[in-house]
Amino acid sequence: MFTIRYFLIAGMAALCCACSDSPRFIGSWLSSAPTEYNSPMPQNSSVSFITGIDFQQGENSTSGPLVLTSLIDISQQLPADSLLISEPYDVSIAASTSLKGTWTMMDDDEIAIAVDFNTFQVNVDKNGVTFSQNILTRADAATVDSLTQVSINSWKKDITRAWKHELSRMQRFEDVEVSRDRNMLTFEVENTGNFDIKLAFQRVINAD
User: Fold this and answer.
1) Which residue has the higher pLDDT, 12 or 76?
2) Rounded to whole angstroms, how far apart are CA atoms 34 and 48?
3) Which pLDDT band holds residue 197 (cuts at 50, 70, 90)?
4) Positive/negative CA dihedral, 193, 202, 171, 96
């Protein structure tokens, strides 16, 4: 009995040690509020996105895989562009992105980020593209389908360009802090000016 109890206690102690070696930020996080791209976006458009970060456990406690995602909300007013579309109209688009990379701890509160942009994907659901009512009532289905595909192709390019610019300032997370209850993550990244900007993320519970 003593032997069994000893091994149970030893096993639990080893598990606790393994857990303590894992960085507090390991897990999935979602930005607390929508943000806007730092690079210019198309005229007469409004674009906001929510960023997701998945810090995955690596072979050791100082580095590991990383997945960046985003949920993007786009609205744009477009001018009349043909005889078929004789007045300005609005388009709304829902998109998402994903990108893989790695994280490396530089010190206790600084993380270096490296991404492989070859893994970058932009997804736009065709059913998530909507137009103002005047287009839907006056244009035929073929015209609407054509406008939908044009919008998807155009915004895929704009989102890719915007994220390349966005990632140029996200190569290092500084002043990384995790709240005592491990449900809030904050860190600073470079801003377009001469100061850093602080970002806040909330843990995604049961993300797996």
Assistant:
1) 76
2) 6
3) confident
4) negative
Is the Cα dihedral 122, 50, 116, 203 positive or negative? negative
Which pairing describes strands 27-31 and 63-78: parallel, antiparallel, or unpaired?
Answer: unpaired
pTM, to two decimals = 0.81
Q: Do 161 and 172 contact (CB within 8 A), yes or no?
A: no
Contact 171, 109 (CB under 8 A): no
SS3 annotation, the chain: CHHHHHHHHHHHHHHHHHHHHCCCCCEEEEECCCECCCCCCCCCEEEEEEEEEEECCCCCCCEEEEEEEEEEEEEEEECCCCCCCCCCEEEEEEEEEEEEEEEEEEECCEEEEEECHHHCEEEEEEEEEEECHHHHHHCCHHHHHHHHHHHHHHHHHHHHHHHHHHHCCCCEEEEEEECCCCCEEEEEEECCCCCEEEEEEEECCCCC
Residue 173: CB partners within 8 Å, gap ≥ 6?
110, 111, 113, 187, 188, 189
* Residue pLDDT, tens place only, 148-167: 999 999 999 999 999 998 88
Contacts of 204 (CB under 8 A, 6+ apart): 27, 28, 29, 30, 52
